[in-house]
Amino acid sequence: MFTGIIEEVGEIQSIKKGANSAVITIKASTVLGDLHLGDSVALNGVCLTAVSIGKNNYSVDVMHETLRRTNLGELKSGSKVNLERAMAANGRFGGHIVAGHVDGTGTISSMKKDDNAVWITIDTSAAILKYIISKGSITIDGVSLTVAKVDNKSFAVSVIPHTGQNTTLLDKKPGDTVNLENDMVGKYVEKLLQYGSIPDEEEESTTEKTGITMDFLRQNGF
Q1: Which string of DSSP letters, residue by residue, matches the chain?
Q2: Looking at the domain assignment, is residue 211 inside a domain?
Q3: Is residue 204 included in any domain, yes or no?
Q4: Domain with 149 in it
Q5: Confidence grade of residue 192 (pLDDT, cut at 50, 70, 90)
Q6: Residue 194: what pLDDT?
Q7: Which side of the chain, N or C, has fewer Cβ within a 10 Å radius?
């Protein structure tokens, strides 16, 4: 699990592509501090496992589904990327709950400076927009941000100087693709609402034994 607070900006050293997969090596420093084989690191918001660790770099395997669903397939040697290690149990929760499981991508439609901040507007699909609410959280290339505006085509965030200086967001330009992960709370609520009327096995067993149902209780004033 991650928080969307980027620890450092790394650099892609090499990409070895297979038929439908890739091995990516990333130059880094901070995230290597206590990194072990098998540990998870979010790269542009994508949770990936460290499969080898060097003095100033580490490598990850990327499967076909990840390349298809994210912008990792667009990376090349020299590309800058946002990096965050999995959250430690004693760490501060500075952003929001981020799984590192990207829901899809969006396309930057505009970037406008507003005094010391920069407004970034991103077009994306209805499947992602339905979970986005004004003042809610969204993860963009691994960065936890607050949604300022949303409509039926796009949403906008305001990037403060600190975030701009410590992530890759302000290196982007209109037309660039970014990874998006919705706040998982909304997805859980939707699932519960879909299945909320279906009794679990224990409820079914109790109903069969007693004959008491929700309709029976309502009819009798409960």
Answers
A1: -B-S---EEEEEEEEEE-SS-EEEEEE-SGGGTT--TT-EEEETTEEEEEEEE-SSEEEEEE-HHHHHHSSGGG--TT-EEEEEEPPPTTS---S--B-S---EEEEEEEEEEETTEEEEEEE--HHHHTT--TT-EEEETTEEEEEEEE-SSEEEEEE-HHHHHHSSGGG--TT-EEEEEE-HHHHHHHHHHHHTTS--HHHHHHHHHH---HHHHHHTT-
A2: no
A3: no
A4: 104-190
A5: confident
A6: 80
A7: C
